From TrEMBL:
Pfam families: SBF_like. Gene3D superfamilies: 1.20.1530.20. Keywords: Membrane, Transmembrane, Transmembrane helix. The chain crosses the membrane at residues 7-25, 31-49, 70-87, 99-119, 131-153, 234-257, 278-301. InterPro entries: Na+/solute_symporter_sf, Put_Na-Bile_cotransptr. GO terms for cellular component: plasma membrane. It comes from the Bacteria. Signal peptide: none annotated. The lineage of its organism: Bacteria, Pseudomonadati, Pseudomonadota, Gammaproteobacteria, Pseudomonadales. This is Bile acid:sodium symporter. PANTHER family: SODIUM_BILE ACID COTRANSPORTER 7, SOLUTE CARRIER FAMILY 10 MEMBER 7. It comes from Pseudomonas fildesensis.
Amino acid sequence: MTRPRFLPDNFTLILIATVILASLLPASGQTAVAFGWVTNLAIALLFFLHGAKLSRQAIVAGAGHWRLHLLVFSLTFVLFPLLGLALKPVLSPLIGKDLYMGMLYLCALPATVQSAIAFTSLARGNIPAAICSAAASSLFGIFLTPLLVTLLLNVHGDGASTVDAILKISVQLLLPFVAGQIARRWIGEWVGRNKSWLKFVDQGSILLVVYGAFSEAVNEGIWHQIPLWELGGLVVACCVLLALVLVASTVLGKAFGFNQEDRITILFCGSKKSLATGVPMAQVLFAGASMGVLILPLMLFHQIQLMVCAALAQRYANRPESIPEMMGQVDP
């Protein structure tokens, strides 16, 4: 039986089901505490496997394209936050204070790794540069996101200083990643052979955090706090934010004289925000606070960016091949 085209992908459907489950059967009391420990272990495993999976050779291959990386970083960590602040007069009354804070958190996050590379590959962009840029964004985001969250939201992890928040994230996220890089020499080939099913660790850890976050939010009455019209406004806000960044990525890529393969990489690496990194970071940065409202904009933006970028990637994929591509080469 052919899958209806209007249906989202399986992970999106499972994500929606997880939110519904948390709304009907939220974890509470000691169950929630135990669930939190399981979630933290799953997040550590997630970043350990990311470290074991990421090839250092792939990073070195694209590391020299500094102009491209600088533009992608500027889009991710400068343009997004500036747009979030500039749109406050419109967004704050449209979606309410709490969801607007979630939008600012979304703007402070690093780019995705998997989907940015996948879409760049499908669209025949500069794949080595995409690998390097997306991976570096994820790593630098461990340090930059807490700083941006402090500046934009005036929030510190557990009420402590920004340095404490960075240290906490480093212990929970960066150390497992480094351990994975060290273990790569022994398990790298195994991870490479099994990466088709290791994605379920990525998705499973996200689902665990989402269930825990929404359980806490439901226990605090999230669905009574957010009117339906604010949710509709959030959809519009996410679409507008993504459209502005996509246009800026395209215009700046042309203005700075990048070739088409590089412009494709800039488009897909500079317009993404990472759900896989953002949800675990929220678990650390906003411990003790209600996460459900804060990650709702990220969850929605993530689905919108996937659908829009999938259509854009397919459009680029259908273009005629250039002479360098026919010769098996892409300009650096």
